[in-house]
Design goal:
Blueprint: E1 3-7, E2 13-17, H1 25-37, H2 49-61, E3 81-84, E4 89-94, E5 100-102, E6 113-120, E7 124-132, E8 146-156, E9 163-164, E10 171-177, E11 188-189, E12 202-206, E13 213-218, E14 224-229, E15 231-235, H3 238-245, H4 255-261, E16 265-269, E17 272-273, E18 275-279, E19 287-294, E20 298-305, E21 312-319, H5 332-335, E22 338-342, E23 348-353, E24 364-374, E25 390-395, E26 401-403, H6 405-412, E27 421-425, E28 430-434, H7 436-444, E29 450-455, E30 464-468, E31 478-485
Parallel strand pairs: 6-17
Antiparallel strand pairs: 1-2, 3-31, 4-23, 5-11, 6-7, 6-18, 7-16, 7-21, 8-15, 8-19, 9-18, 10-12, 10-16, 13-14, 19-20, 22-30, 23-29, 24-28, 24-31, 25-26, 25-29, 27-28
Length: about 475
Amino acid sequence: MNTLMYDPLANGSYIFFGVLLRRTSCEATQFVKDLLRKDTMTMKYITRLLAFLLISTTMLTSCQDPITLGTDLLDEDQVNVGFTDSLDLRARVIRGDTVLVYGPALNQRLDNYLFGDFEDPLFGQSLATLYSQVRLQRSKPDFSDTALDSVVLVLPYDTTKVYGEIEGKNFSLEVHRLTEDMSNIALYYSNISFATDPNPLATFDFIPSLDSIEVVEYVSSNVQETVSYPHLRIPLSQGLGEELLGLDTTVTANDSTWLDYFKGLQIRPTQSTPGLLSFDLNDARAGIYLYYTQDDTIKRQFQFEVDNAAARLSSYEHDYTGAPAEAFIDNYETSDSLLFLQGMAGLNTEIELLDLDQERFENIIINKAELELQVWPTVDSARFPLPEQLILSTRSSSGALQVIPDISLSANSGTGLGAFGGQYDEDTGSYTMNISAYLQEALQNSTSKRLILSAFPKAENPERIVLYGPGNQIKNIKLRLAFTRL
C-alpha cells in the first residue's frame, strides 16, 4: 500500500512516499477525494431509411445489448445494422502544447489577458505574466513649460474572465521596463519572455475591486469629465514621469523612434493567490497616463496607449509539483480512472482508440460515432467554473495539432460547433462530441488513432476540469458507435 501524507504545516502541500502503483478506478477516485477533504483550498452516411430507424432505436437503448465487434461482425446471419459502446479505449493526461498568444492578424490576438500566480488545489501553480508595448497617440505631446503631477498605469478589467477566488484577496505585482524589443508583426507563443530592467517602475499591493471606479479625465485645457469603469490604477515612479516630460521631440517624432526608446512593459505577479485576474488590453483606455500642469494653471493628461497596433500578450508557466494532478501526467494507470484538463498552456488528455484496425471494420460504414465524457462531480464548479467547450485534435506528421474533420465540417456549416458538440450539458454532467467523420477517415486512411482532448479556446481561458477515465468503475468514457454492414 502506498502512503500519502498531508502536511498541515506546509501550506496544504502533499508529500508522496514510494511509487504510485496501479489502483482500481474506485481507489483512484477516492484517492483524490481524500486529498481534497484535507486541503482547505478545495474545492462529434446513412445509407438506408431502415438503417436510420434501427440506429435511432438502438441508441436509445445504448449499452443494454451491445454488439461485439470482431470476426463475427461480418457474419451473414446477423442484421446489417449494429451498435456498440464497448470499444477499447485508453487515455493519459499529458502536458499542454504552447499556445499562440499574439499575432499580427486580429484573430491571432487574445480577447482577454490573464494575470496572476494562481495556486490551484488540484492543478498546482499557474503563472500568468503580462507584456505590452505602449504607443504614441496620433497627436504628438507638447511637454513645454510643464510640471509633473503623477504617472499611472491603467489596466481595465475583463470582469467576465476572472477565475477562482478574487474577492477580498491580496494581490501583489511589479512593473518592469522592457530592455528587449517586442514586434507587432511577430508570432508569440505562451512560453515567451522578454528581458527587463531589474529595477521596477512600481511595486504594488492591492485587493481587486471589479466595481467601476470614477476618475477625472482632462479632455482639453478647459474641459474635464468624470468617467467610470472597472480598472486597476498602478502608480508608476515619479522618476519615469519626469523622464517622459523631458523627452526630446526626436524621441516622440514617430512610433519607431518612440519604441526604440521605450520598448514596453512587463507586469508580473509577486504573490501566490487562489485566483486569476483578467484584463482587457483591447480597451482603448489601457495605457500609461501622464498627468501634469502646464503654464502653472492648466491641468492636462497624455496617454501612451495600448492601442490596436501594440503587441500585447499573457505568457504562461505551469508547475504541477506536489499537486494531485502530477500523479496522473503521462500515467496510463492513474489516468484510467481520472483525467485532467486545463486552459492556458495547461494539461490536455490523449485518448487512444485501440480497436480501430481496418480488418475488423472491413465493409463497415460508420453512421454515427459519439464520444461521451462524464465530469467528476467532486470538483468545485461554483468556485472553478467548468470549460464551456471541449474540442478534439490529432497530431500531424510534423507534430502540430489539427482539429478533427467533424469540427471543420461543423464550423463550415454555419452553425459554429453545434453539430460537433463538445459543450457541457448540466443535465447529464457530461460532454458529448460527434466524431463520425474522423472515425470513418481513421478506418480508411492512416489517420492517427490518438485524439487530443483540450479546452477551447485555450489561450485566454483559465478554466479546468476533471473527467472520469476510460476504466473508472463508477462512470467512464463511452464511444457509442452505430454502423451499417455492406
